[in-house]
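Study this protein:
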Amino acid sequence: MIALADPPVAAPVPKPRTLAELTETVSASRLSTWQRCRLLFFFRYVAGIVKPPSAALHVGSTVHSVLQQWNLARWRRTALDPEALRAVFDQAWLVQEGIDWEEGEDAARQSAWAVLETYFRYTPIPADEKPEGVEVSVEADLASHGLPRLIGVLDLVRAGGRIVDFKTSARSPDPGMVAHTHETQTTAYSVLYREATGKWESGIELHHLIKTKVPKLVVTELGAAGEDQITRLFRVMEDYVDGLEGERFVPSPGLQCSSCEFLNECRRWR
C-alpha cells in the first residue's frame, strides 16, 4: 500500500519491452492503447519506436507540468503567484527537436498559457483545500483474479478522496460520451485508489482544459466505479493478456488513423 503523500515520479523513457514484461504489469494508458489499436500498441510498447511529440502532446505535457507544481504548492501549504507560475511554465515549455508546430510555436505557446490562466480563474477547487495526493504512483496486486499488477499515476486526489484527471483538448467533450470513452482509465484509477488507501473514492472528476480561441474549462463529475465497471475492466485486462500471449497485433483502421504517428509503419505492415 502506498501513502498518498508520496512525491511525484518522473515518467519512464519509452523502450522496447518483452511480452513477459508487458504481461507482468499493465497501466490504464496501455490498456487504452490496446483497445484503440493493437498494432499501435506493438509499435509503441513492443518495438519501442520513439516519435517526436506532436504540438498537441507538447502543449498537454507543459500544461500538466504546471498543474502538478500548482497542486504540489497547495499540498505544501505554500502559494505560487502568477509570476512564479509563469516561470514554471517557461521552464516546462523547453522545446524538443522535431515538433511539427502546424500553426507556429508562438501560437501554441500562447494557447497553452491562456488555457492555464482560464483554469486558475475558474477551477472548482477551493484555494484553501489541501490535496490528499499529487502525482502519486500507485499499484494494485490483482493476482487473486488471475490478472497482471495494475499500475498508474493519479494526477490529483482532492480532499475527501475525489480523484481528478487533467486533460487538454481542442474541442469540448461530448457530455454523453465522456464516461464511456474514459471508462477504462477512470475505473483503473478507482481500483488503484482503493488498493492504496483501503477505502472507496468519493468520485472522479475529469477537468478538460479546452484550447479554443476563447479557452474554457469543462468539468465532468463521475461517481465511484461500480461492480459492473470493475468487471468490464477485468475483462479488458484478460483480453490484453490473451492477445499479448497470442501476439495478435493487428491494425484497427478508422478515423483515428489520420492523427496516428505510426501511420507510415502501419501502411508497411505485413
